[in-house]
Amino acid sequence: MRRKFYLGLLLMLLVMALNAATAMANAPRVTLDGEHVDVEASLVDGRTLLPARAIVELVGGDVDWNPELRQVTITHGSTNILLTVDNQTAYVNGVAEILDVPPQVIEGRTKVPLRFIGVNLGMEIEFSGATVNLISTQDITIPVATIQPETQPAVNPLALSNYFDGRAFSTRQHELSDGTVLNVHITSVVRRNEDAIVRFDWQPGDDFYLRIRYASGYGTAAGLGSQTTNEQGFISWRWRVGGRTALGTYPITITGNGESIRLYLTVIES
Asked: In 3D, which of 246, 249, 190, 177 has the Cα closest to residue 223?
């Protein structure tokens, strides 16, 4: 009986490996304006997926990876895209869109749908046989070196605190100037007319300044600005996101004590 179980398990693993190998073999060759791009594509349910950074960095955009929420935030100019691994709902400037195929982790790398990302980053997509050509609508420099595998920040599970005051948080790890790691907790996705919260632990009596840059300029809501760590070294900011705030992803900067911490807040529909 046990032998049949192990044989069945082995057969299942072999089928999975063969399927993965077939998808890799059938994946198209990728070019940008006719020039070959050295990137490992995958074919899933007839859709081409590429490593998130491979597409975005070609057009000078930024990619932020949230390991515990398994979310990818892409920022390029005025375009902000939020995707979640294995979830077919994506947000473009805060507006929900349904994907044909969700982002997936394949062989340790987060891959996203090529057509969806390319179109939203202003590129045209042209398929020709086994080749997919990205046609840029702006000046893009193709990196000479091979695109390196996407690295995901290490996370200390003991430092994660996913709920505070009834709200779900994500934790970002920031490397300080002395090489130590600071865990910063943030409600990284909020709705209009909802409070955004940022908090972390430090040493008592130190001042920090937080500001967020919305589409209309720097935020002025009560709760932003300067705060001082309390006797336990705890510090937090809490402010209300306005009902008319433009949907999208916005940068947050926290400065103080020789440190500069960068975060992102995504505002979605109410």
From this structure: 190
Q: Are the C-beta atoms of residues 55 and 120 closer than 8 Å to each other?
A: no
227 strand-pairing partners: 208
Which whole-number Å values give the CA distances from 235 to 94, 131, 157, 202, 250, in the listed order?
28, 52, 21, 7, 21
**Model pTM?**
0.49
Distance CA 85, CA 92 (A): 16
Write down the CATH superfamily of domain 28-135.
Copper amine oxidase-like, N-terminal domain (3.30.457.10)
Contact 67, 155 (CB under 8 A): yes
Structure-block tokens of residue 168: 């779900």
DSSP string, 40-91: --EEETTEEEEEHHHHHGGGT-EEEEETTTTEEEEEETTEEEEEETT-SEEE
* 8 Å CB contact between 68 and 171: yes
Pick the closest to residue 188 from 159, 168, 208, 174 (CA basis).
Answer: 168
Q: What is the DSSP letter of 224?
A: B
Q: How many whole angstroms separate alpha carbon 118 and alpha carbon 114? A: 6
Number of H helices, E strands in the chain: 3, 25
Fold match between 28-135 and 157-268?
no
Q: Domain residue spans in the chain? A: 28-135, 157-268
Name the CATH topology of 157-268: Immunoglobulin-like (2.60.40)
Does residue 257 sit in helix, strand or coil?
Answer: coil
Q: 63-101 pLDDT, tens per residue?
A: 888 887 888 888 887 788 888 999 988 888 877 888 888
**Would you tell me how many other CB atoms lie within 10 Å of the CB of residue 63?**
20
